[in-house]
Amino acid sequence: QVRLVESGGGLVQVGGSLRLSCAAEGGAFNSYAMGWFRQAPGRERVLVAVTSWSGDSTHYADSVRGRSLLSRDTPRTVHLQMNSLKPEDTAVYYCVAGPAIRDGMEYYDYWGQGSAVTVSS
């Protein structure tokens, strides 16, 4: 069984940077897109960024585009670098893996446990 293990997260000041990492452990893991969703307090869970199996194609949410970079250095690991953090980036971030890049939660087969990110002023 595949398990997504997240690291990073925590408390960051406004304007600061953060790096979230995710590793897929165990099981067969072939041709999966990987990335991140987030859920702010009282809000629905939404896509942040997802990259293809090869890492050649990456989709970013408008809210983070231009100040975030999702990289995939191995087929089983991704890293999300977020810069110029804002209070509205405060959320629980979830690593995801699925067959392709899609916006909806329902398309992703595997989910991490969630990593809390708090951006404070």
Strand count, sense and barrel status of the largest sheet are:
7 strands, mixed
Mean pLDDT rating? 96
Gap between N and C termini:
40 Å
Helical percentage: under 10%
How many strands? Answer: 11
Taking all Cα atoms into account, the compactness measure Rg is 13 Å
Q: Give the DSSP E fraction (strand runs of 2 or more residues).
A: over 45%
SS-based structural class? mainly beta
Low-confidence stretches: none
Overall 3D shape:
globular
Q: What is the count of DSSP helices, taking H or I runs of 4+ residues?
A: 0
Summarize the structure.
This protein has no helices and eleven strands. By secondary structure, it is an all-beta fold. Strands 2, 4, 5, 6, 9, 10 and 11 form a seven-stranded mixed β-sheet that branches.
Task: Write up this protein.
By secondary structure, the protein is an all-beta fold. It is built from no helices and 11 strands. Strands 2, 4, 5, 6, 9, 10 and 11 form a 7-stranded mixed beta sheet that branches.
Describe the protein's topology.
Blueprint: E1 3-7, E2 10-13, E3 18-25, E4 33-39, E5 45-51, E6 58-60, E7 68-74, E8 77-82, E9 91-98, E10 110-111, E11 115-120
Parallel strand pairs: 2-11
Antiparallel strand pairs: 1-3, 3-8, 4-5, 4-9, 5-6, 7-8, 9-10, 9-11
Which tags fit this structure?
single chain, mainly beta, globular
